[in-house]
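User: Hi! I'm working on a homework problem where we have to compare a predicted structure to a textbook description. Could you give me the structure for the chain below?
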Amino acid sequence: MQSVSYATLDMLVDRFGAALLERLTDRADPPAGVIDSAVVDRALADTRAMIDGYLAGRYRLPLAEIPPQIPPIALAIAIYKLHVYSPEEKITRDFEAALKSLREIAAGTIVLTAETLAPTPTGGTGARITDRDRPLSEDNLKGWI
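Assistant: Happy to help. Predicted structure tokens:
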């Protein structure tokens, strides 16, 4: 299964700025003064895994085309995951809103323009009897007749 990227480093830089990403990812001692793409890639992979976990029950993965609802969700999750310590309140609110959206996608409240999974057949139609036969006899009708 080919992995799909729901967000990229360029998208993160465009949305949050290079200075923030450098501050969050440059973990060298002393700091190198650049965005560490390996740290970003790890956060994006974790983000993809989280989103796929919510989509797997309803949509065929990997997605052939990424619906427009997914990249903003991925960006909110990825920037949250890049924080080593507590992120600012806006980042936390955006992350919580992204998780809410994922739960709504999983529940079917939000519908994506993606190929859904075929319904699982139940194996039968109509009513089923799941209890044993109970023939009427004089012994089991004592007290009734």
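For your comparison, note the following. The CA atoms of residues 14 and 63 lie 24 Å apart. The helical segments are 9-16, 18-25, 37-55, 70-82, 89-107. Good luck with the assignment!
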